[in-house]
Amino acid sequence: MSMNEDRVYYIYKDQFQKLRVDFVKLMDDIKSFLDAALSNGLLTYSHKESIMSERDSNDQKRRLHEILELYMSMNEDRVYYIYKDQFQKLRVDFVKLMDDIKSFLDAALSNGLLTYSHKDSIMSERDSNDQKRRLHEILELYMSMNDDQVYYIYKDQFQKLLVDFVKLMDDIKSFLDEALSNGLLTDSNKESIMSERDSNDQKRRLHEILGKKLPDGSRKFVSDLEKSNHKEILELLDDPSVYPMKFKPHGRVILINNVKFPVGSKYNEKLGSEKDVEGIRELFKAFNFDVQLYSNKTAEEMKRIIEKASQESTAREDCFVMFLMSHGVRGSIIGTDGKELSYSTINTILKESYELKDKPKLIYVNTCQAYFEKEDVAQYFNVADLHVTFATVPESFAYRSRKKGSLFIISLLKVYENNKSKCDISSLSVKINSQVSKECKEINMDQISSCYSTFKRKVILRATDSLFSFSH
């Protein structure tokens, strides 16, 4: 009765997953489907943007299939789809309103959202607010998990693991089943692998094929390793000598650029800095960072921006980057109000940030350092896992071209661009110093950059945008 009103198709996820190849083949008008799905509310415009950002039509169809899986059996498995950035903004209110953490943890343990190791980690915090912050941080890992979680595994990193991969891939059949299920591998890939004469040759062939799928296939690869119980291989992917860069984006770049200062003040307008901003944006976008620009800020506004950024860093951000570009004196950066924000204050903000603990922090200071009140920069910065690069040395000026930008940023971009496939931040410091000196000699000036580091491991950034090129 009332069939027209109530009739539904009831499609299960596992049923839909098996149709992936045919779905891609038969979805011959994705635009019309998306229009209909937007019209009836099945998909959102953010879904459409995510789908259409894929590089070709088949990848767009695969992405559509992946998103649609979330809606299979919706009446049975209905969920709230909470996005990471949405949840991040609720951190303060979350801590305030989570008035019964014990009951929440019991429920989360009961339904499998959290594990007992999560609970131990949370309850080991020193007070209730820190427990809530730790809970919030862990829950972020589950926000939009299908969309956002990525292990970013590079080809050269994976190639080095051939011997261990062959040794530890003890159930190739299970792995292949998972890899076929989520589309990481194709049936022809499987046939090529299984045609090898013995199990070790099969594993070597699998390793060879997987290398061609990286880094783009990192998320699916990690999922397949987990589901086929090959966690020892996952552990190998973390190089103990390098800070891990697992997520995409790797984090945010806080770019503070002060250009305009009060008329009649001793600080001139910093003409040409727009070239610096353009180059930094392009470079760090290629390095898989989100760049957030803050222009013309007072000393107090800069302090609040840095405090907010350090508090909002999440467990799914690998690295923290900040550019400070303005006039500078006596161990301080100058705000547009002519007031000073000391490096010591910035150091305290970074040091007191629970969210930035154990993360690599890259700070680039493009200011003059005339009339420095302390000779040793280590007296300003003493935070662990920090690498600070200054445009110049104490009691010196940093030079800038109105047409090209500052000599320090020009030099930094040139060195990083020339090493964009493997940008080892610490080892490139000497090259930056040399390039700054070279740029200055061309205009008969004298400037040398300097750096200070408390890194315990290497930071290696890699440009994945092949369109990136130096434009200064």
From TrEMBL:
Tree of life domain: Eukaryota
Domain Caspase family p10: 384-463
GO biological process: apoptotic process; proteolysis; regulation of apoptotic process
Molecular function per GO: cysteine-type endopeptidase activity
SMART domains, sorted: CASc
Gene3D superfamilies noted in UniProt: 3.40.50.1460, Death Domain, Fas
Chain ranges of the Caspase family p20 domain: 249-369
Residue ranges of domain CARD in the record: 8-69, 150-240
Keywords, in A-Z order: Apoptosis, Hydrolase, Protease, Thiol protease, Zymogen
Similarity-based family: Belongs to the peptidase C14A family.
Protein known as: Caspase-8-like
Organism: Octopus vulgaris (Common octopus)
